[in-house]
Each structure stands twice: as C-alpha cells, then as structure tokens.
Amino acid sequence: MKVELCEDAQELNFLITRMKDLLVDYMQQSRQSDGLLVDYKEPDELERIMDFSLPDQGVGPEGIFPTITQTLQYNVNTFSPRFMDKLYAGSSPIGVMAELLLAGLNGNSHVYHVSPVFTLMEVHVTRALAKLFGFQGDRAGGLSCPGGSASNQLAMITARNALFPEIKRHGYFPRPPTKLLQELEREGYRPYFGPAAESSTYGKLVAFTSIAGHYSLEKSAVIAGLGTENIVGVPCDSFGALVPSELERLIQEHIALGHTPFFINVTAGTTVLGAFDPIRPCAEIAKKYNCWLHVDGSWGGCTIFVPELAKTLLDGSELADSLTVNPHKMLQTSLQCSLLLVQDTSIFPRANALKANYLFHGQTHDLGDGTLGCGRRSDAVKLFLGWRYYGKLGYQARIEKSLSNVNRFLELLAQDDFRGQRIQMLRLGSDDDDDDDDDVDVVDVNDVRRGGRDKTKPSLLQICFWYRPRASRLIDWRGTEQIWREESVEQQQETLSSTTVDHDTSLEKSAALSPSLSAASLASSVSVQSSESSMSSAPGTPILTTISMHSKATRAATTEAATATTTTTTTTTTTTTTRDYGVILTDPQEREEAKAWMERVTKAIHARIRARGKFMIDYAPLGACLPIFFRVVLNPPTIRELDLVQLVEEILECGEAVADMVPIPKCCRAF
Ligand SMILES: *Cc1c(COP(=O)(O)O)cnc(C)c1O
C-alpha cells in the first residue's frame, strides 16, 4: 500500500529533486574546460539583474527556482578546479551530502540529548585528530567552532581564563607597568589603582605571534579586552617563519617592563606564503615562560594527513596546549568546519562554563558548555563523514595530489625561462639561502622540510609571482629583511653590521639611509650582480671579489650585459649561477614609482582575468616595500594538467592585453 506523503514531505521531495538536478549539472559544468566559473558583476549591475526584493505574498515552490537558477549563474562556482583564489575551494560530493544531512536534521550540538549522534561524532573525530597531532591523554580532543578565527579566539580566551581564573569573574585588572610605577614614585606620588589592580597577580597581558600571523589573533585581543597593541609581532626569517630567538628576546623585554606574557601563537601555514613557524623551539620557550602555546594550523594543519610532511613541518605539534585546524580549507569539507584541539577537553568547561543550568544539566557530553556560545552547528560531523568516506589515506592522497600540482605548475612556469621572464616568481631571501644550484624553480614535494629544504620554494599550495610587461626590465624586488623586520629597525641595524660580505660598504650605507631598501637585500643583490659581471669578463671568477659602488647607469648596463651573457652561458659549465633576478632600484623614489606601476599592472590583469570568468586568482601585499603580487592557491585536488596549462596562458594573454594600458615609468623601461 502506497503511503500518502505528508504535505511537508511532498514539498521537500519536489524542492530537493529539482535542486539535485541543478546541483549535479552545476558540478558537471565546473569541469568543462571552456566553461566559466563566474559571470562577474559589480554590485550595482547585479542589483539590476536580480530581484532582491522581499514580497508580502510568497512565491512558493515553483516561484523560488528562478532565483535559485540566477544564484547559480551569478555566484561563483567554487566546484571549479579553476577557483584558485582562496585557501578554501569547492566542497567534495560527500561534503555536500554531509551538509545536507546537517540541514535535514537541523540538530543543535550544545547539549547531548538533542543531538546524541552528532555529539559522539564530534567527540570521536576531534579525539582521532588530536591523536594524529600527538596529543596523548585520555581526554585529548576538541570542539568545532564557526571558523578558524573563532577557534583562535576560543583558544586565547580559554588560555586566559585557565591561567587567570579571577578574570572570568572580576574582570581584567592588570598590575600597572613597572615603569609607570617607578615614574610616579620618583615624582613623589603614591599611586592607588584600586583593589583589583593592587592585588593583581598579573601584569598587562601580552600575546605573541609572528608578524605574518593571521589577523584573527588581534581580533581575539580586541574581543578579550587586551587591545591589539598587546599582540606582539615577532619578526620572521626571510621566508616568513617566526624566529624563535626573537620571540624569546621580546618576551624578556616585556617581562622587564612588568608585563605578563601569557600566550604564544605559532602559525602552521601562514595565510599568504604558507610558511611554517617552528613549533618545537617555541614550545620550549612557552614552557620556560609559563605561556600557553597555541598552534594556528587553520591552513597548514591538515598536512598532518601527510606523515612525510608533518614529520618536519608540524614537528613538535604534540607539545601544543591548543591547536586550530580548518578541514574546510584543505580537506574540502563544506564551509564551515574548524576545530580547536586541546590536550584535555575538560579545560573548556573549566575555563568557560557559566551556570546556565536551564540548558546544561550536568551531562559531560554537553559540548556547548565549554564554548563561548550557546546553540551550535554540528560542523565536526562533516569531517567525521568525510574521514569515514575517504579514509586517512584518501585525505593523504588528495593533499599529495595538490602538492604534485604545485610541482607541475612550477615546471610549466619554468618552461621557456618563465616565458621569457614574463612571469617573475616572488623571491624572498638571498642566494645564501638557496641550496640548490639548478636554475629551474621547481619544488620537490619530498624535499619540503625544514633545514634541508629549499626555502625559496613555496612551502605549501600557494604560488606567488608577478607578471612583467614586455617592454619593462626585470626588477629585483627582494628586500625581505626589510619586510619582516619593519617593526624592529634596531634589529635591522644588527643584521647590517653582521653581514659578512666582503665588499665596499658604501652601497650598504646608502641602503641604510634609504627607507625602502634594506642592506640585507642589497648584500644579496650585490652578490648576484657581481657574479654576473664577473661572468661577462672572466667566467668562473669567484663571487664577491671586486665589488664597488656602481653608478645607477653602469649597474643597469651591467645587469643588461649579464642578462645577455646569461643566455649564452647557460650551456657552459663555468658559471656559478645563471640566475638573473634583475636590477635593484636603489633610489627610494624610483622604487616607489616602480612599485606603484607594478601594482597597477597586477590589479589590471587581475580585473581582466575575473571579467573573463575562466579563472579566479587573487593578489596579496607583503610588507611595505614589495609590490602586490599574484597568489594562486592550488588547493582543489580536482585541478588537472589542462587547468594548469590554461592558467599560464590566461595570465600571459591578460598580461599582454593590459600591459600597454599602464605606462611604464622611466626607471622600469627596458633599454
Ligand atoms: C584562514 C585562516 C584563519 C581564519 O580562518 P577562518 O575560518 O576564515 O576564520 C586563521 N589563521 C590562518 C593561518 C588562516 O589561514
């Protein structure tokens, strides 16, 4: 006997069947090589095309579909392997289905008894993931949060409340800074700051993260009432990874001021470059100074599924007090899925629970009690189902596929000498850090490891480069010491004096006077130029023998000559290096001009690529002295060779098309 469907079931059946066809078709479209992933419209245009008004009379099941079809048309098809704009990309089929399950059940994971299965899935998947990171205890596990920023925020507040439980109740009243007290006393005042501050066990709380860390740490400080000034930016090495000795130095400085360092954030996979801060040495420092060690692995944390990588990139993860990981980025679970893992999950209710006993009746599986919220989406379910579906090895294979795409893309770019150097890779650091001597920039996935690896290559799935217009000359933009050390000029002076390059220092001195060019970058550029100029006169002459202050014109000429020589000497075996990173613009004004021009070029190409709708890539800035550069994220494992080949063509085509529209400043013109 056929059971008559209830009204809602009938309606759902109609909607979901129609939607299923649309979605399957949408997924199919995303893989067509001539298909578009966006029909991009500016907001006012889109307002004209679509109807965003809200009616008094509902449109009903039939009437809703025109809106849905238009949404599919004008929103971005992130299922496309050509969506390379962001760290997240389209979901996987099981990701969509898991989301459908969540939508279908509409369960709330604050208390166990309204979502028993979802709750246990969250408990089990966070426990399993925590174990992968090496968290040992029986109570290792975590919570899902609405995004990486929210996970970082929960980490900071949990840390603060765990270390200083009184703040939860009394509010935040730090002891006044030592220096202020001393000054007041010297002036004969007997300051009184109120009972809370007088009896405070802590000074002004300060947290540490690298200057390449994510801004959510600062947001967390805003929310926690600590203030952004108290998130201390730790300098990075030339490749964007935190320098532990700098971390310790800054901690000591703050202690001397009477402040209380309490939280260290280590980024595993920075947002722009994908750099990994070294966890282990930071963990030692955290222990020494009684700080909470948090690892922000929002982006790079998922490399835990690739043991070969994790062994080095995530070395020391087992020492973290808390760790954020976003499966919605590298594992293609649907947005959002972010987890905060800890060594002992009982810390969450201890640090954050209030006495909301109308909701929480003492069941330890009531996960909501440990959060800063109330009702919560069961996002962990998506990782649970995805993990069951693909297995740990399946996830590993997917990430490895993306890593091999990075290799392949770099090979493609390197072909024909980076298309006659139209494509200029973002280079950071100096030749001293370059430990391979072939002139093809190819990253070896198996070689991505701290120490032995070539740090001039991408650490993860981001590829950064510029397009160089044909009639311009190649400009060496390195100046990374400056970028990473912007905030500590004194430190930079030290680097300057310790540079052990044997040459006329007048060039460095002028660089030191120039606000936009660092001595360290000059030192490296000088070595490049000298090798090349010596190449043109006496092949095989050791680098760094006869370097003197060139005038701008002679240096330019030398470089041009070197470029010419490079092409003829690449086949000989006499050269120490055949790399040409271009001319250094030492004049600050010229450098500014060049930077502004390059930024216009990059933005024009970016706009054109987006308007054409075949690819989506983004650009990013890095420090004050580099022009913005393209950042392509090869995250979707669905990216095919064809997509990579066509991406190179797309960049070159759009580059050719816009280059003439942006006049080249004199200092950047080819001779
Ligand atoms: C993406 C990212 C975040 C923020 O994650 P959301 O889920 O977007 O809030 C935090 N830290 C790092 C390093 C990231 O890359």
UniProtKB/TrEMBL annotation:
Protein's name according to its UniProt entry: PLP-dependent transferase
Kindly give the Gene3D superfamilies that the UniProt entry links to this protein: 3.90.1150.170, Type I PLP-dependent aspartate aminotransferase-like (Major domain)
Question: Where would one find coiled-coil regions in this protein?
Answer: none
Q: Which is a Gene Ontology cellular component entry for this protein?
A: cytoplasm
Look up and give the organism this protein is from. Answer: Modicella reniformis
**Family to which the UniProt record says this protein belongs:** Belongs to the group II decarboxylase family.
The Gene Ontology biological process terms listed for this entry are: carboxylic acid metabolic process
What cofactors are annotated for this protein? pyridoxal 5'-phosphate
Q: Does the keyword Ligase apply?
A: no
Q: Keyword Lyase, does the record have it?
A: yes
Region annotated Disordered sits at: 494-514, 554-574
Top-rank taxon of the source lineage equals: Eukaryota
Q: Which Pfam families match?
A: Pyridoxal_deC
Report the GO molecular function annotations. Answer: carboxy-lyase activity; pyridoxal phosphate binding
Keywords from UniProt, A to Z, are: Decarboxylase, Lyase, Pyridoxal phosphate
Where is the PTM N6-(pyridoxal phosphate)lysine found along the chain? 329
